[in-house]
Amino acid sequence: MISSKLRLRGDDDDLGKIIDNYNGGDNDEFIKQMIEDYGSKGPKTLSNPSGIILTKFNSGSAVRHFAQSALGLSGENLEKFMQEEYNEAWSKYDVNKEGQIPETMLPLFFKSLVGD
Q1: Which pLDDT tens digit goes with each residue over 80-99?
Q2: What is Dmax (Cα atoms) for the chain?
Q3: Nearest alpha-carbon partner for 70 in 112, 11, 12
């Protein structure tokens, strides 16, 4: 969830506007593209039939891209977001500390970054 301490897109914009902009009709396509761009092939399991995973190694670049594209963050705001939100969200979805999140959980992971 985005911290209330974080100032996004300038001092006058509020978090609600940013989340409203993100929750547009094509956010599922955007997340699908993020998975295609940053996902890796892992073993197929019952809980992850495709075997696609987001590794910790790739996740930093993926979240940075997500924050820039979906939230319009850059510069200092982007760095603050990465420091304050990224690790918390990662640890929430990599519950077994395996260094990866299965594809089935990735939409939730990305949406959690905007408090959705």
Answers
A1: 999 988 989 999 999 889 99
A2: 47
A3: 112
